[in-house]
Amino acid sequence: MAFVVIGAGGFGREVAWTAAEAGLDVAGFCDDDPDAGGRLAHAPFLGAIENAAASLAGGEVSFIVAVGSNKARRDLFKRAEACGWTPRSVVSPHAVIAPDAALAPGCYIGPGAVVSVGARIGSGAIVNNIASIGHDATIGDFAQVCPGAAISGGCVVGTGALVGSCATAIPGVRIGADATLGAGTVAMRDIVDGASIVRLR
Ligand SMILES: CC(C)(COP(=O)(O)OP(=O)(O)OC[C@H]1O[C@@H](n2cnc3c(N)ncnc32)[C@H](O)[C@@H]1OP(=O)(O)O)[C@@H](O)C(=O)NCCC(=O)NCCS
Q: Which of 11, 52, 87, 109 has its CA 20 to 30 A from that of 22?
């Protein structure tokens, strides 16, 4: 089955690197920007998802969306599924994943990340480099935990929420759907859906 990385920017190249380390062959990159292929070294640029689907027709295709915007990632995910493609997770061999952690299809777990016992990672979610997901925590679909962030035990990160680099959620906190926890911020209590919280200066 051909494996395609959707998103040909810096994060796309990072995800392709991790995929290669995990033993996956990247058949190519998709991007709506026709000029996005300029910095790709190791795999061909396939253009927009629908164009790639036409040229890869007849074969099964799996994909991951490697785009930082949570909303754009969700939209691209749906477009790829509409083409009959199957989401595939990319997990770094340098991540540590508990045996009973549950990873939904199409998520990304970067190098150095730790996903602890009983944790659940949603579809299309990102757990980036050196992030820590505590026991029994839930990371919602299309949510994103940026590098170095620490989500403590029992926390819930809602669908589409963004946890910035090196942010921390103390145990049991719920970060609402589409909410933002700014880089370096410590969440001491729940954050309502759609809210944006940054640390006190
Ligand atoms: C929280 C965040 C989303 C806000 O972005 P924004 O809406 O564009 O906000 P702005 O940059 O306009 O900043 C608004 C104000 O909040 C402050 N602010 C923004 N983020 C902050 C943070 N993490 N901690 C403290 N203050 C912060 C800004 O200094 C600014 O203050 P001012 O009004 O006194 O000048 C963004 O700053 C952030 O932290 N994003 C996380 C990104 C990340 O970690 N990415 C990793 C990708 S791998």
A: 52
Is residue 57 classed as helix, strand or coil in its secondary structure?
A: coil
Q: What is the extent of the structural domain holding 161? A: 89-190
Domain boundary among 88, 107, 134: 88
Nearest CA to ligand 1 atom 47: 146
Q: Beta 114-115 vs 168-169: how paired, if at all?
A: unpaired
Last residue of a domain, one of 34, 53, 88: 88
> Could you tell me the distance, in angstroms and rounded to a whole number, from the CA of residue 80 to the centre of ligand 1?
31
Protein residue with its CA nearest to atom 38 in ligand 1: 182
**pTM, two decimal places:** 0.96
Q: How many of the other CB atoms lie within 10 Å of CB of 201?
A: 3
pLDDT above 80 for 41 = no
On whether the CB atoms of residues 80 and 49 are closer than 8 A, the answer is yes
Q: Which pLDDT does position 37 carry in this prediction?
A: 83
How many separate domains does the chain show? 2
